[in-house]
Amino acid sequence: MSNHQSLNTKEHAELRIHTDHGVERGDAVMACLIVPHEFRQVQGDYPILFRRNDDGSGFNALAMLGFENGENLYLEGDKWDASYIPLSMSIKPFLVGRPREEGGEPQVHIDMDHPRVSTSGEGTRVFDEDGRPTPFLERISDQLGALHAWFQETPAFFQALERYDLLEPFSLDVPLSNGTRQSLVGYHIINEDKFFALDVTALDELRQTGMLTPIFMALASLSQLSGLISRKDRKENLG
């Protein structure tokens, strides 16, 4: 369940947020949404895969964190073992809400039922004693604004990939050292051969529209699959 509220000083003056990580903080997910603007940072830690929306209307980009629902192999107690945490995870429990008026600016909302919301008086303050946003909230607001803008641009990226028929189905079946197997099915990746076979006109269009870098980053990220498998193997062997 969720309880979304528009963030304001009247109702949330004493609000505090847990900023550590862990299963109890809502971080136990096998994948999280990312946007192409993040691919450069994401590819250094996580495999980037694509998945078609449930309604078939398009694709989403995902940073893969595990192989099973509720599994984040980057969690080590209250630590997240990676140099970069995707924005869709680092902004929680905040989200972008609808503007108060038609054509207005999007508002900062908060899910008051999220496990990061502190009910113990511990955690990082959202507003200071004078009701002003703390540096923590200012950073979150900047991240929300960037993420909202980048999500608006994401459909153009997938339209370009589909226009040049660059997406191909992907599945992975991996034997682990303890005799079990792990798999990923229902995903897509960029077809590297088709990409490098594009003519100069197509490549120039992708360059001018800013699509080349995220394509290269997505391809480079596939080298992180071996690291994800190693994390799973260690977890299984430790029981």
Automatic annotation (TrEMBL):
InterPro entries registered for this protein in UniProt: SapC (IPR010836)
One Pfam entry name: SapC
Domain of life: Bacteria
Protein's recorded name: SapC family protein
Species classification: Bacteria, Pseudomonadati, Pseudomonadota, Alphaproteobacteria, Sphingomonadales
